Amino acid sequence: MLRKEQNDYLTQTDPGTPMGDLFRCYWMPALLSEELPEADCPPVRLKLMGERLVAFRDSEGKLGLIDEFCAHRGVSLWFGRNEECGLRCPYHGWKFDVNGQCMDVPSEPAESGYAKKVKLKSYPLIEKGGVLWTYMGPPEKQPPEPEYEFCTVPLNQTFMSKRLQETNWLQAMEGGIDSSHVSFLHRGDLSTDPLFKGAAGNKYNMQDLSPVFEVIESEGGLLIGARRNAEDDQYYWRITPWVMPCYTGVPPRGDHPMHGHFWVPIDDHSCWAWSYDYHPTRALTDHEVDSMKAGKGIHVRYVPGTYRPLANKDNDYLMDREAQKAGRTFSGVEGIGMQDASLQESMGPICDRSKENLVSTDNGIIMARHRLMRSAKALVEKGVIPPGVDPEHHKVRQAALLLKRDVQYKDGAKEALKAKQGVRQTSV
Amino acid sequence: MQSESARVTTAQESRFRVQYPNSRQRAVKVIALDPPSAEMIDELAKKEWKGATFFRALSFASDAEPGKTDAGLSAWLNDLAGRALDLVSEVASSDFIVVVSAAGEDARSVSVIADACTAHHKTLLAIVVPGEGASDADVSASMGHLRPYARMLVIAHDADYITAMLTALRA
Questions:
Q1: By the CB < 8 Å criterion, does B137 face chain A?
Q2: Nearest-Cα residue of chain A relative to residue B137
Q3: Is the Cβ of B149 closer than 8 Å to some Cβ of chain A?
Q4: Do residues B164 and A364 make contact, with C-beta atoms less than 8 angstroms apart?
Q5: What's the pLDDT tens digit per position in A252-308?
Q6: Pairwise CB contact (< 8 Å): A212 & B125
Q7: Does B170 sit within 8 Å of A1, measured CB to CB?
Q8: CB pairs under 8 A between A and B
Q9: Is A192 on the interface with B (CB under 8 A)?
Q10: Interchain CB contact of B170 with A (< 8 Å)
């Protein structure tokens, strides 16, 4: 349970809010590389943390992320012409470079220097692992580039998708660290989804529906261990890392690629659910990539031409009561991503946490909220750099493994939880 | 026509969610397993709580056999006023139990509390607070003591977390 003012504190990320300041300490996924595929391609408009922006790749391939609206009369530069190393407003021809600097005001003599005095707000945009990342904080505090393993392996080993989720970022992210729902909501998919099925560990999920949890603070966030009984005096552990503020990793299954999410606020009522899949030591197979593109695993199928899920609130998520009754799906909604999103959207755009009744197994969520609030407060009041900014904090892995019952997972899985180049994931 | 899912998930429609108290007050018993934890919960108890009460396990005075006290289970707990209380009846009247252990301290008395929880079907939640100077081995040892009994085990470097957790659980 959170008081209303605490809920507001955590869910509001517009400029000038404490959580907005916190998010602006990090590199965040902004766009897929495929959205700006080549020099002088059409610009893309987007909103991040309550700021309307437009992104483009100029004639030399340089990336820009600038205020969406022309400084002259407020026209959207999405209508702009991306040409000759700048984005030109189609209304009166003002032109801006990737840094937002006005390059040309056709109605004024070039020699007047008028253009030099006009600059749009801009943010750095970098390309890494098939993702265009931005940092929207103070330039003097820009951290080193992100080092999450999914964006540092060769491109043929990684796959990223994104989907629009019509909720606040926090309830989406909280789903990512809530391991106890898997045995219910996603149970139908463990044995059928091509990116999940066949793993030896799946049987433990199905045999033991009451996992026991251990939550440990890590340098960058949390480690949430869920243990289930296994044979030979062992526990089956599934360990979920959360890196502040919004990165989560799903413990792996067999040799399937490892997956997880970023939950990036668009505004207070919507977010981008980024979904990665990667394998640390091998290229993804054609079958795996085809399955991901077909919306299997944690990915979704789209409304054509958009990143909105095909199953969405407008069509009641294509609810299939027969599949629910037959047990093919637990909720009647197909696909792991939309099973989560449909329920989270049903909470409303911002979940009213003053009415919730958490239980002891929700301690991962409670601890995450606590760390977020504590870190935002320390940042705003004392300028303390929050956990998860240091790229070393990104080098964490999810893991699934069997350990003797007297072994602590923080000790027994210590090496398994480190991202190591060329080393296979630890998985059952 | 707009789907029902689209309609009910709007901010405007949120105001039609039925407003009423959807749960009753919970009785949460918080038990310190060792002297440093007792200091922590002394401070915690000064805050305003709805249904949380705070105790010390008397057994931490007993070196010989953890969990045992001279008076047995009928005088196994101390409330903060120093009155000896019956462990079993306190557990029986709770909704769930929280035990707090400082890393490196002897947490073996948790087994007695766990037995009472099992007998009365109560959830036991354990928090280890490492504290300054606690080593990784200390934390591991505490976790080892608590793991067999706790439904949820949390390592909280910040003692404020206990407050946050109890508040979140409506204690």
A1: no
A2: A411
A3: no
A4: no
A5: 999 999 999 999 999 999 999 999 999 999 999 999 999 999 999 999 999 999 999
A6: no
A7: yes
A8: 113
A9: no
A10: yes
pLDDT > 70: percent of chain A: 100
Each residue's pLDDT tens digit, B42-98: 999 999 999 999 999 877 645 445 555 555 666 678 887 778 888 999 999 999 999
Domains and CATH numbers, chain B: 24-168 (3.40.50.1440)
Q: Does B73 touch chain A (CB under 8 A)?
A: no
Note which residues in 208-267 of chain A have CB less than 8 A from chain B: 212-217
Q: What is the pLDDT of residue B15?
A: 87
Contacts of B168 in chain A (CB under 8 A): 1-2, 358, 362, 366, 369
By the CB < 8 Å criterion, does A318 face chain B?
no
